[in-house]
């Protein structure tokens, strides 16, 4: 069955471009479009969607609040936040609201398609290079270096799980973590699963958010 995608952006030209890219894929179908977050919520009430490509700054209801409301629904679609470098704080808020990842608006078509497929399959999309650049941009929003991690379950992590957590938070993929720690990629995936369970998190996007908010990792990729 084709992945059912909704495009949410107040720029019709941008939606047209994305629709053309997706229409050429045999495993994807654009089933709905919306010009703002409120319209997206209204459309979802009567349209089955698997993945929502969500802009951030829109009239009536912005993408962050729309994402929060969508993700609070029963069996919600996955949400990919679209961002530009001058709206980094909105992208971060979108991840906290429940988005499965973020993309830059000028993402190459191949990466866009790969991200949609990954999110649809249950993986989070946090492009390593993009994560590092993005999180470096809003260091004033992050905890000071003297702040200790506050998440009540962080202490439950083993030394290896903590190592993996720090590398995930720095934007490394499972393959990159495997190479760094000399482990198999399957082993890293198992560690990530255990970390999510222990910390009560949904996906690796939330690991990134938690690590930066608690001070485990600070802007620039430094560990706390």
State the total count of DSSP E strands.
Answer: 7
Distance between the termini: 45 Å
Structural class: alpha/beta
Q: Looking across the biggest beta sheet, what order are the strands in?
A: 2-1-3-4-5
SSE sequence, one letter per element: EHEHEHEHEHHHHHHEE
Largest sheet: 5 strands, parallel
Rounded mean pLDDT score: 81
Shape: globular
Number of helices: 10
Query: What is the percent of helical residues?
Result: 40-55%
- What is the CA-atom radius of gyration, in angstroms? 17 Å
β-strand amount: 5-15%
Question: Which ranges are low-confidence, i.e. pLDDT below 50, for 5 or more consecutive residues?
Answer: 138-149
Structural key phrases:
single chain; 224 residues; alpha/beta; two-stranded antiparallel sheet; 10 helices
Written description of the protein model:
The structure is a single chain. The protein contains ten helices and seven strands. It is α/β, with parallel strands linked by helices and 224 residues long. The strands form two sheets. The protein has a five-stranded parallel sheet, with helices on both faces. Helices cover 47% and strands 14% of the residues. Helix 2 packs parallel to helix 3 and helix 8 packs across helix 9.
């Amino acid at each position: 069955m084709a992945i059912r995608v909704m495009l949410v952006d107040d720029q019709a030209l941008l939606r047209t471009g994305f629709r053309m890219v997706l229409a050429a894929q045999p495993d994807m179908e654009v089933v709905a479009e919306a010009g703002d977050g409120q319209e997206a919520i209204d459309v979802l009430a009567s349209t089955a969607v698997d993945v929502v490509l969500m802009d951030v700054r829109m009239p009536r209801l912005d993408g962050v609040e729309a994402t929060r409301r969508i993700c609070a629904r029963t069996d919600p679609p996955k949400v990919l936040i679209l961002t530009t470098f001058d709206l980094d704080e909105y992208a971060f808020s979108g991840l906290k609201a429940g988005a499965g990842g973020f993309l830059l608006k000028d993402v190459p078509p191949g990466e866009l398609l790969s991200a949609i497929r990954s999110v649809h399959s249950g993986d989070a999309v946090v492009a390593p290079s993009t994560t590092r650049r993005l999180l470096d941009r809003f260091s004033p929003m992050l905890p000071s270096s003297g702040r200790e991690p506050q998440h009540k379950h962080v202490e439950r992590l083993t030394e290896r799980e903590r190592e993996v957590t720090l590398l995930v938070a720095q934007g490394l993929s499972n393959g990159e973590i495997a190479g760094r720690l000399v482990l198999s990629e399957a082993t890293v995936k198992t560690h990530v699963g255990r970390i999510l369970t222990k910390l009560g998190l949904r996906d690796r996007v939330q690991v990134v958010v938690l690590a930066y908010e608690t001070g485990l990792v600070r802007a620039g990729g430094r560990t706390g």
